[in-house]
Amino acid sequence: MTRARAALALVAVATAATACTSSAGAAPHSKAGEVASSSKVDQVPCAEHLKPNATYHANGASYHTDSKGRPERAEASDLKSSVADRGSCQGKAGHMSGTTGYDGGHLIAATLKGVDERYDLVPQWASLNRGLYERMEAGTKRCLTKPGGRILHYRIRVTYANATTLTPNRYSTDIQVGTRGHSAQTIKLTMANRALTTTENTRLRAQLDKSLTAAGCK
Question: Which domains can be identified in the chain, with CATH numbers?
Answer without folding.
Answer: 51-214 (3.40.570.10)
